Automatic annotation (TrEMBL):
Alphabetical UniProt keywords: Membrane, Transmembrane, Transmembrane helix
Species name: Mycetocola lacteus
Cited InterPro entries: AB_hydrolase_fold, Esterase-like, Mycobacterial_A85_antigen
Compositional bias annotation for Polar residues: 115-126
Lineage, top ranks: Bacteria, Bacillati, Actinomycetota, Actinomycetes, Micrococcales
Name used for this protein in its record: Esterase
Amino acid sequence: MNPDKPIDIPPSLENGAAGTDLLATYWPSIIGLAIAVVLIGLWIWRARRDPERRSRRVRRGFLWWTPITIVLVGTLALGVNTWVGYLPSVSSVQRWLSDTPQRPVVVSNKKPVQGSGTTTLPTSERRVTTSTSGYSFLATIPSTAKDVPSSGAWVYLPPDYDKPGNDRRYPVIYAMHGSPGSAADWFAGGRIDVTLEELMKTGQFPHAIVVAPDLNAGPERRTTEPLNFPGGPQIEDYMVKDVVGWADKTLRTEPEANKRIIAGMSSGGFTSLVFALRYPEEFGSAISLLPYAKPYSKGIVGNPEAMRMNTPTHLLRELPRGTHQTFFIGQDDGESLRAAEVINRDLREHGLTTTLRTYPGLEHNWTAARTMMPYGLVWTAQQLGWDKPNS
């Protein structure tokens, strides 16, 4: 199979349109600017007609300029958000604001559904998935990693996951945010659950679970990349051991490497390359969006050994030939494209299945990540030969 052949995706997912509404356009900013112009015009008109003393005009001016300033600041914020693409819809705002973790719910009217290991998932009279819609929720994943507290993760369960009697297991997409970022990013800005359900409907991707953990080593956001820092937080251990282990124990996953995708954007995209190359026994595929060539965190750059062990080109030299992994690299046409070209070339020369797709005109933001992800998912499913959703 030619890894560089064109990738077809549903029209609804083109140009990052998945799960967006008016917030993804500049119309809210235009409307806000128009309101500000009207308010300023009214203030000027009132000021010219006001015969009162200057002190009273100043007080009234303050009363006028306070809402005008609020409108202008809000308009600027809406414009920046549209460009970044982080909150493209009202529902994404709701997810970003959500901070109440829930236990993984699997509903069965007959008996509890067992996860692998000994965990029994709670039962309820209310199903949370349907035959066409999955369920997204915020969970807490315990940590055993040094200097990394237990942290939140957004999780998506596919349609009919909790259908009574369903004991099917599912592949998993582990989605890592960039920096700055949080667990909500792939569900708020990335709209990964909406993207996945569209691809399931067209038969281009199987029913799957998504786990998107917080990789900041706590609310203080002590790091900028999810790596093991010498003498500091061991975020890589948390991701590879705790997050993956929690998913396999708590959810009905297929716990094999060829049923796991490690994905991310920006620092998450870079780290998806690092983790896939370091742990081929854990991750069979990587979807690396907007990556770069080398780590930049202060605690890594200042340590030659840590720098070497967290650089994809070095890890590739240590990877045994004959490893069956796939790598999708998505990049804009900016300054990082050259690094992506080198990484793609080196991966292919090592005998790995890889492709680099360039998306001209996009920036280093969530609009780009949301645009690229469906291509990465479809390509990966094709390369792995994964079954269609209803097979």
